[in-house]
Amino acid sequence: MIRLQRIGLVVVTLLAVANAQHTCKVSGFDSTHNANGISVATGFISEGPFSTGALLYRPIAPTQAVPPVLFSHSDIKTGETRTDLRPMAATLARHGAMVLVLERTVMWGPIDELANRDPHLPDCASQWLLSRDGVDVLHATYVGPRFQQTAKNSRRYPLGFVNLKQPRRGNLYVPLAESEAGSETLLLTTSDGQDQMLKAIEAHWSVEVVQK
Question: What is the pTM of this model?
Answer without folding.
Answer: 0.85
